[in-house]
Amino acid sequence: MAAARAGPAELGFVEAAPAWRLRSEQFPSKLYAPLPDRADAFHRGLFLFCCRAPPCCAGLRVFRNQLPRKNDFYSYEPPCEDPPPETGESVCLQLKSGAHLCRVCGCLGPKTCSRCHKAHYCSKEHQTLDWRFGHKQACTQSDYLDRTIPDHSFLFPEFEIVIETEDEITSEVVEKENESEITGSMGEAPEEELDSMAKLESKEDKIFQKFKTKIALEPEQVLRYGRGIAPIWISGENIPQEKDIPYCPCGAKRTFEFQVMPQLLNHLKADRLGRSVDWGVLAVFTCAESCRLGIGYTEEFVWKQDITNTP
């Protein structure tokens, strides 16, 4: 791993506006992370995927894509940020060009409904699911596919993630928090007991306390971005060593770029103990050279740290 740089992280917070989609058994989270000093990475995206079922949690995958400003996919000038004028017509939700996508998960959809020939699916399983959850009744409605988004009960909710720069936590704030914790404890336990507890304080406790202190100013953060900075770990267990982070196929080391926080689980409503996806920290490491890809994607590396029984 490249040496971590100092500096504040960019924090991500959930907002209600639908701008990223968490769909089907997997959730794709797209992070737009261009490199200002790289013409070939004017557009640069990171895509994190994970199965929502616990047996497959080890199957976390992250991919990187980057393009120059002039390319065959995006306009050279940025899109207008002002909302389009209201015409009274509903927005068409179907793509008018490009590959057909599955109505359930958004993957390539080579299969077609034999009745309306308009709904596309990646598999028979997703076609059956969509049929059961509404397509059967609406199949023959001419504008149904253009005006509605499937609402399947197993899909994760959709959110926009807004980014803000982290305020630095000063040493005075940390000292004040530590003093208040000690003061509060002294009224509840004799001094000799506190001395004994202090001797037994483990590295695990210190790391978890550091995690809590770091996020104390912004407890709702769901994402931390900072290419080349150090991640914050929730536990002293299962922290990767340099040898645990594989090199990029181009031969360059990988460096930390962003992490997904456990607070996101609350928004995903992944609360079925033992039956839903779970994590303490998801730390994503990418090629330190952000090697050229053409128009393709390359797989990067994600490290999953679980939450332990930390006091």
From TrEMBL:
InterPro entries: PDCD2_C (IPR007320), Znf_MYND (IPR002893). It is found in: Nucleus. GO terms for molecular function: DNA binding; zinc ion binding. The keyword Acetylation does not apply. One of its GO terms (cellular component) is cytoplasm. GO terms for biological process: apoptotic process. Residues 102-139 form the MYND-type domain. Signal peptide: none annotated. It comes from the Eukaryota. Keywords: Apoptosis, DNA-binding, Metal-binding, Nucleus, Ubl conjugation, Zinc, Zinc-finger. May be a DNA-binding protein with a regulatory function. May play an important role in cell death and/or in regulation of cell proliferation. This is Programmed cell death protein 2.
